[in-house]
Write a structure and sequence with these properties.
The structure holds two protein chains of two kinds.
Chain A: H1 13-37, H2 39-64, H3 68-71, H4 103-138, H5 143-156, H6 160-170, H7 176-204, H8 207-214, H9 219-255, H10 265-279, H11 285-313
Helix pairs in contact in A: 1-11, 2-4, 2-11, 4-5, 4-7, 4-9, 5-7, 6-7, 6-9, 7-9, 9-10, 9-11, 10-11
Chain B: H1 2-30, H2 46-60, H3 66-78, H4 91-125, H5 130-144, H6 148-164, H7 177-187, H8 194-222, H9 230-248, H10 251-287, H11 291-298, H12 303-341, H13 346-355, H14 359-387, H15 389-394
Helix pairs in contact in B: 1-14, 4-8, 4-10, 4-12, 4-14, 5-10, 6-10, 6-12, 8-9, 10-12, 11-12, 12-13, 12-14, 13-14
The chains are: A mainly alpha, B mainly alpha.
């Protein structure tokens, strides 16, 4: 069907959807071309893929290659090695920690919860921030906006990472999903809402909003069909930035020495430090380095992707 | 000007009230158990335990309904009284003890991080070898996103062991760092309280900064084109504070504090300069292609003058207003960091009282953290009000955000 040349008003709903998908795909392709030029962003994306691969690989490895009684991240113990922690060997590529766990399998086991924490926090923050920001921008200057602004300025004084460390140390059996949820609910109305509101205000001055108003669009229509779609690029950028804070504060709770039910890079770092303090020796590098690097790399990968997305959304940043 | 300040102060007070309310209910409802439950194991029989715990709650005022506790707390807060710790000390005394160490690291670290950040951001946005730019950005992001205890460990390991800067403590040792500091204090034969010394150091530094600022303004009145370069400001500030400390008579003690604070400040700076750098870089990229840059180049001005005087100065204002939003996060960063570098500040006190569910102290510390970040925001708002003529004429409600 040659609907591409037909005027938009003559199209039926299905053709309109088709056109929308084609346009969206083109926009995605154009954005991807820009994104691909940015080497740091591509590095970040490949690191994220690597961690995702770790999540998938661990159950497969445990099922087919590694014997669970030796390599399982929580109950595994290698009786053939007498002194734990042990240095890297062919059986244990990254050695074992002082509890006898295989460092590599622990490292892989912690990737999944980190993804859940980071992504849940990111999605919840983006949703809460976008909604509050959009409503605030639409009703700019009126009581709803004032109430939201006061709320977010007050929440700004209560940053999510520290609050989450407090909540997390009180409920140390909190699941990664719940952790991300609470993080998002605290972070969303504060910084995210402030940033989204000011962006939404600038969108509200655009001519298409006036056009929608003139043609009789109500508040709900304008907010959900015009304002929020224009805030989505910023929201996706912001999601990536949220991951950093969420993952780091999740790691930090374990660092206080609270035992957590799920594997966690912060806990691995804590264990390495505790052992070295107890024995009065410098930390085992093969135990300390992998989780520390993994945690930093995981957080920075999302940040690099955010930088790439920023370049896609803001043409002025590109190299000319 | 006065109207602007009053309006910002009023909004700040409302924010503070909402913040305190949210904080109280989060702290009281969300956190399970209470202070007395940690003593439950000391009693043998069920009835005896119930009676003893109930008695303890009565004494501490925990048995009252929540809203009574809330009104009690908030009305005391309004009068500047943060209540008493369940162990007996007034929270205000604890704040007086733990706030100066935090402020010293926060103020100096933020200043250094801001200078480094905007300088590097300026450079990376301008023409630069691709590899160098990439590695600078990579380094800044890796430092910014690194796990604070790990970074602290690296800094201690790399510098502390070789230069001997370990007096601030290191690693994860969870002993009382204030006691450690006091021990090295009494070994050196000092009698004054460390936090009092830090408070005086801070006051001297603020005074010196004000003097430098006033001198700069006078020079600008005289010669219109004069602008103090950043390095000169830093140099004057450092030399002036050093001279001031010895003049006030806390010289040797201040040196000991400075030595102990070097590692926390360094770690904090490394952790926080990245954000400023990236925002500065973004804004520079915005101003890079403006017409006035083209005009400045066409006039034949050297490239670094175009960059520093024409592009960077215009790019700096959005950085300032962005800084306003991220200030609480920076302050939080330091609160978290203190635990890792064993620095006796607010964060350390906060987390140690958290472990024993000493809620008045936890809430008091958080309120003070919020108050400090609000004051810092007010100062930044004022600064951008003075610097940016556009804000002076517009006077929007939300200050620097639009």
């Amino acid at each position: 069907m040659s609907s591409a040349s037909a005027p938009i008003s003559t199209l039926n709903r299905w053709q309109l959807l088709q056109q929308r998908i084609i346009a969206g795909w083109r926009r995605f392709r154009a954005g991807w071309e820009v994104f691909r030029q940015n080497r740091l962003a591509m590095f970040g994306l490949s690191v994220i893929f690597l961690f995702a691969l770790m999540v998938i690989a661990l159950p497969l490895l445990l099922a087919y290659v590694w014997a669970p009684r030796i390599y399982d991240p929580t109950i595994g113990y290698d009786f053939q090695i007498f002194i734990h922690p042990s240095p890297p060997s062919w059986q244990h590529l990254l050695g074992t920690d002082w509890l006898g766990h295989d460092v590599l399998s622990l490292l892989m086991a912690a990737a999944g919860p980190s993804f859940i924490v980071g992504l849940t926090a990111a999605v919840v923050t983006a949703i809460a921030g976008t909604l509050i920001g959009a409503f605030s921008a639409y009703f700019g200057g009126r009581w709803l906006d004032n109430a939201f602004t006061h709320l977010s300025n007050a929440m700004l004084l209560l940053p999510a990472p520290i609050m989450m460390i407090i909540v997390g140390s009180a409920y140390n059996e909190i699941t990664p999903f719940q952790f991300g949820l609470v993080y998002g609910l605290i972070a969303g109305p504060s910084t995210a809402a402030v940033v989204f509101r000011s962006y939404g205000l600038s969108v509200m001055h655009k001519p298409f909003i006036a056009a929608a108003r003139v043609s009789g669009g109500g508040a709900g229509h304008i907010i959900f069909n015009h304002l929020i779609p224009h805030m989505l690029p910023l929201a996706s950028l912001y999601m990536m930035l949220t991951v950093v804070g969420a993952v780091v504060s999740d790691g930090f709770i374990s660092f206080f020495g609270f035992t957590r039910p799920h594997a966690n890079w912060g806990a691995m770092i804590y264990n390495a430090f505790t052992f070295s303090e107890r024995m009065g020796i410098p930390p085992q590098w093969n135990v300390l380095l992998p989780p520390a690097i993994a945690l930093s790399l995981f957080a920075s990968a999302f940040y690099f992707v955010a930088l790439g997305l920023q370049e896609v959304g803001d043409p002025r940043l590109r190299e000319r | 000007m006065l109207r602007f300040i009053l309006r910002r102060l009023g909004a700040g007070l409302i924010n503070l009230f909402v913040f305190a309310t949210v904080l109280f209910f989060i702290a009281q409802i969300l956190i399970p158990g209470d202070f007395v439950s940690q003593f439950a194991e000391a009693y043998q029989s069920q009835a005896e335990r119930q009676a003893a715990l109930q008695q303890m709650r009565e004494n501490l005022g925990l048995a009252r309904p929540l809203y009574v506790q809330y009104f009690d707390w908030i009305s005391h807060l309004a009068r500047g009284n943060l209540g008493h710790s369940y162990w007996g000390q007034p929270v205000t005394a604890l704040v007086a003890q733990f706030l100066p160490p935090t402020l010293i690291v926060f103020l100096t670290g933020t200043l250094i991080a801001f200078f480094i950040g905007q300088w590097l951001g300026k450079l990376t946005a301008w023409r630069m070898p691709r590899l160098l730019r990439g590695s600078l950005i990579f380094g800044a992001v890796s430092l910014y996103t690194s796990f604070p205890p790990w970074l602290a460990f690296l800094v201690v390991y790399a510098l502390g062991l070789h230069i001997g800067l370990t007096s601030a403590g290191s690693g994860v040792r969870l002993n009382d760092p204030y006691a450690v500091l006091q021990k090295s204090w009494s070994k050196a034969g000092f009698t004054l309280d460390p936090s009092l010394v830090m408070l005086r150091m801070l006051l001297v530094m603020i005074l010196v900064a004000l003097i430098v600022f006033v001198l700069n303004e006078m020079e600008r009145r005289r010669a219109r084109t004069w602008r103090m370069p950043g390095w000169l400001f830093a140099l004057l500030l450092a030399a002036g504070s050093l001279a001031g400390w010895f003049l006030v008579g806390i010289g040797p003690m201040a040196m000991l504090v400075a030595k102990a604070a070097a590692l926390p400040i360094l770690t904090y700076t490394l952790l926080s300069f990245g954000e400023t750098m990236l925002i500065m870089r973004t804004n520079m990229a915005d101003t890079k292609y403006e017409d006035y840059i083209l005009a400045a180049r066409a006039k034949g001005l050297p490239e670094h003058i175009v960059r520093d005087k024409h592009a960077a100065r215009n790019a700096l204002l959005p950085v300032l207003s962005n800084f306003v939003v991220s200030l609480p996060y920076l302050l939080t960063g330091i609160v978290i960091l203190e635990q890792a570098v064993n620095w006796p500040g607010m964060g350390n006190a906060l987390f140690r009282s958290m472990a024993s569910q000493d809620m008045p102290v936890v809430m008091g510390m958080l309120v003070i953290v919020g108050l400090v970040s609000m004051l810092a925001r007010l100062i930044l708002d004022l600064a951008s009000f003075v610097l940016d003529p556009r804000i002076r004429t517009r006077q929007t409600f939300s200050g620097g955000f639009e």
